[in-house]
Amino acid sequence: MTLVAVSKTRPAALVAEALAAGQRDFGENYVQEALEKIEALAGRGATWHFIGHLQGNKAKDVARHFDWVHGVDRERIAELLSRGRPAGLPPLQVCVQVNISQEATKSGVAPGETLALARCVAALPGLALRGVMGMASPSGDDAAQRAEFGVLRGEFEALKAAGLDVDTLSMGMTHDFPAALSQGATMLRIGTAIFGERRIEEKTP
Ligand SMILES: *Cc1c(COP(=O)(O)O)cnc(C)c1O
């Protein structure tokens, strides 16, 4: 199980404290803010996960500076990330985002489209397919969260059954991680429960 500490809106000094305490994986949503932190903390052994919605014009920056991208939801973004990944670096580790809550405002492919996008990611030279990522509806209770995460787990199993080499089920945030763990999450993305409430208003990415 990997814990990604979601450090969006938090200052680099706080991330440095978490690093000193032994935390290695950090999640960021906003490219510009993240690049400043990545630069400030270079050489300290952090692994950076881009977990937000990615626009095409930011793909190159993400491909150069991050280790993982969890929000790949269309072929074009996968291609831009692969093309932008510098040759000297290992491939970018990628999760395909699936819209498990079926909310129109959420990104992600519909569950039935996961395999096609996963195959596309697996075939690109600059990318390494690792698994799937999803977010449950914020309004759901524990039973609803389990049902939604169960859909993501089903997609993960379907990729394995199709012969794809995947090991990552990225699901679970502060308010729903028990349900995610019950459905087999291998990677949790937790911000608030680690760093406290975000005081800075979230920008719309
Ligand atoms: C902000 C965010 C998280 C962390 O949310 P918390 O409720 O603070 O734990 C996890 N995943 C994604 C995609 C996020 O945007």
Briefly say what this structure is.
The protein has 205 residues and is α/β, with parallel strands linked by helices.
List the helices and strands and how they pair.
Elements: E1 2-6, H1 12-20, E2 25-28, H2 31-40, E3 47-50, H3 59-65, E4 68-72, H4 75-84, E5 92-97, H5 114-123, E6 127-133, H6 142-161, E7 168-170, H7 177-182, E8 187-190, H8 192-195
Parallel strand pairs: 1-2, 1-8, 2-3, 3-4, 4-5, 5-6, 6-7
Helix pairs in contact: 3-4
This protein binds pyridoxal-5'-phosphate (PLP).
The site of pyridoxal-5'-phosphate (PLP) has 14 residues, from strand 8 and helix 8.
Mean pLDDT: 95
Question: Approximately what portion of the residues adopt beta-strand conformation?
Answer: 15-25%
CATH superfamily: Alanine racemase
Low-pLDDT stretches are none
In N-to-C order, the SSE pattern is EHEHEHEHEHEHEHEH
